Amino acid sequence: MQRPGHPTQRPPNPEDIVMAWSTAAVIIALIIAVMVVVSTYISGRFQKK
Fold it and tell me: Which UniProt keywords apply (predicted)?
């Protein structure tokens, strides 16, 4: 049963695309930051020994 005024195939909204890309960019930046912090922490631990 389809509701009126709700098409099944609507054209992609540019705002939705921008939101998706910005969200992906934020997630990637967080992952890179965590990797950098972990790598620096591990290298610092090994350098102290």
Answer: Membrane, Transmembrane, Transmembrane helix
